[in-house]
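User: what does the whole thing look like in 3D?
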Amino acid sequence: MEKFTTLTAIAAPLPLANVDTDKIIPARFLKTIRRSGLGVHLFDTLRYDEQGAERPDFVLNRAPYRGAQILIAHENFGCGSSREHAPWALLDFGIRAVIAPDFADIFHNNCFKNGILPIRLPREICDALMEDVRQGDNARLTIDLARQVVVRPNGEAVAFEIDPFRKHLLQNGLDDIGQTMAHVGAIDAFEQKRAASQPWLPKIALA
Amino acid sequence: MSGPRTLFDKIWDAHVVERLPDGTCLLYIDRHLVHEVTSPQAFEGLRAAGRRVRRPEATIAVADHNIPTSGRGGGITEPESRLQVETLEQNVAAFGVPYFPVLDERQGIVHIIGPEQGISLPGMTIVCGDSHTSTHGALGALAFGIGTSEVEHVLATQTLLQKRARNMRIEVAGRAPAGTSAKDIILAIIGEIGTAGGTGHVIEFTGAAIRALDMAGRMTVCNMAIEAGARAGLIAPDETTFDWIKGRPYAPEGADFAAAVSYWRSLASDRGAAYDKTVRLDAAAIAPMVTWGTSPERVAPITGAVPDPEAEPDPAKRAEIARMLAYMGLRPGQKLAEIPVDVVFIGSCTNGRIEDIRTAAAIARGRRVAEGVRALVVPGSGLVKKQAEAEGLDRILVEAGFEWREPGCSMCLGMNPDQLTPGQRAASTSNRNFEGRQGPGGRTHLVSPAMAAAAAIAGRLADAREFM
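Assistant: Here's the predicted 3D structure for the full assembly of 675 residues, as structure tokens:
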């Protein structure tokens, strides 16, 4: 996983609430056995018409947002399915951070596993940031994870909250399976205790 | 933790392996359900790191999302879908994971077969790379969907790193009127609290109307807890639960069953347990429901009409409603019961159980699917299909003009051959009405099995009570 430290990049405004995971990546593109290559289908139905041509009015089809690495949206971003293809598609397109008033739980969690930083900020601030980045080419935002701030083009720093454990993993690009493996002794002990206290817990063994 | 605890608190506390300094917990996972879509990259990760599956005997795999629901014997013709299923088969063989093959009668939708086999039991932690894992909460298990990185984490460690969710209680008091089903109850709840109403919470469903539901109905309710944004849905296990589990293939037997039941009984929320949020609904006021928009919260009783966006004061919401009506091809004020349908889909992890098929068949009996309507009935598992056929339900449905198909996710998600074409309108017993969910440009109205069967007969959205 790539580390996340600071990011200065173009941010794309997507003023929609309840952007669901089918909108981020429709199910017909989930038939892959890889993580990469999904960026071309990101927001497929918003981005392309029935003939597969780009819809010129969609934000990621317009300059400078075609090169956006930050996305700003409205409430309940990423609702719906658990498909990690949603953050994979965002990442493959180049998005490293999503700013919204709130996120659906599973999507929020999946972002951290892929080095994408989801930032919760109040609706008014999201709207103000969207206004900033509508100013065109020079309207870049800076995200500084160590300081936990989003810096607006006018220099104002907006603070955000993040879980310290997740911040640590993101800053260091750590694989959390590796972290958990350090607790393998505790897992062994837990299993032994469970086997003694609930001996009736069935095992799945197929004939 | 001392003091009165909720059902969620008790299951959580019983599975904490370790608590890290910032409060993140290493949570033990009892059951891991694996399917073909969200697992290939996880197995690839294990392989790359030289890791094994820690507890194959706590894991079960099945293919459901991709597989066609007809012509099974001939294999999967679509190359990408075939590759995904073949990859699953190679992975389960390489890592020693139990698997129900496509032609096994136990194959089916992962959330149907877990409870059906007794693999999912009360008090367990159950995960799957699928958001509708919340279904298993109907048994009184803490069950939730995870992403592929977490699938890999569970395969490797049998644990997950988790922050404790908050407790929410939704009490559905009173008695549901005749013709109001579990699906109507959960749609009414989502309409009330919204698709983010449960975010960050585990919802425990309580109250007389929930207690009165059979297990199929409870699974329908918990299935759609995710559509209310919740991490999981839960219903306290009771006699209905224990009777339903007894005798299932992987359930404990004899003295073990008795010991298990005595533990399961202790899981119910304590009197005085605190919830962070409580919502109360009166079941008596819930009529058969239908969604009119492209979010499950956009729902109304079948006796109602399509809303007028101009009546919405918030400009962002007004624009959202207008966009939905444009996508759905509906006019403000249009009566819901006058909207014609092209397709009816009865099935999915929400409503693909034997009880759902019985309900549909009771309405179909002696009637005909309307001219020009395609109506599919897709059992949730091979065993549901077998049971329905033993009861003669397939004949009733086929005589009425319904298609009787092989088990799988089918038209719920637009990933296998069962899809809507652009502009087609469906009455569907599935769980999501997002744009393009059932196929690009498809229009979905979420309803109960009775409402879906009634729509098939009427050729339009219809009040199922008129067909009972």
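In plain terms: The two ends of chain B are 50 Å apart (CA to CA). The mean pLDDT of chain B is 97.
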